[in-house]
Amino acid sequence: MTIQQAEEVEGEETPVPSARAAELARLSPSRAALELAWPGIIEQSVSAVGTAAVFAFVGHLGATATAAVGAAGQFLFLLFPVWRSLAIGTIAVVSRRMGEGRPAEAADATRQSLMLGALASVVFGVGFVIFAAPLLRLLGAADDVVAIGAPFLAVIGGTSGAATVALIGTSAMRAAGDMRTPMYLALVSVVAAVALAYLFIDVLGIGPMGSAYASSIVWIVNVIVAVALLRRGVAGLSIAGGPWRITRPTTRTLFAISLPSGLESATWCSVSAPRTSPRIRSSRRSKPSPSSRASGSPRRPALSSGKRSA
Predict the structure, then answer these.
(1) Which of 20, 84, 87, 46 has its CA nearest to residue 226?
(2) Which residues pair with 147 in a beta bridge?
């Protein structure tokens, strides 16, 4: 090494971890784990309650509407590996870069994750819009269920990309050490989704599509707010000012983490996804006559001709 190279190395600034990373490092391991975990626990619990509340509004519309929304929701359940894998890759890369004191590289990884999520969302969204009805028929849905479920799946599937990008954005916030901002955003989103679903379904009488419209509006607003917060800066992470481009090294690093997680989640989702029975496909089913219900015995077929033998 020459004297000039040694002077250049000495002149380089040593990376300093972000203020949030340094704050967490001063805590005990158990205290730091609790500090990072409790906002996520509250967020997931409230989100589950909100989802159940919205589905309850749909349940009041009848068995056919419930079956249609439930069948369409299964495909969003199968999208979970895409959402989860990209989010895990983002958390791993961004948290490492922030811990190393390289916020510019963390911001670059965040921007590329957002773009990759948006590209994947466009592909899946177009597929849902085009093949909504055939996908539902693969589950054995009857025509009346498909008539309700196909437009529902087209709307929520087409806009689910916003949920994917928003999840990547909030995952980057968590990786920077800010767990509370995603929690607050999720709480507001749940309240808004429940209120909009009630307005569209019960007040305006739109029907099951009210649930799809409510979810889509909330997802779109979420991605706008998440990107705006990241541009302003969250826990030392800001995506403002940098180039929006996808590079091979960063993409390779993200996929090296995301793909194994995606395969794991895909396997779990394919095994645990609920199945739709072809025998229970709508509410239009023949019912027993009042007399047969009273007697408790099945109705006997009428004799077409002849007499009963003694």
Answers:
(1) 87
(2) none
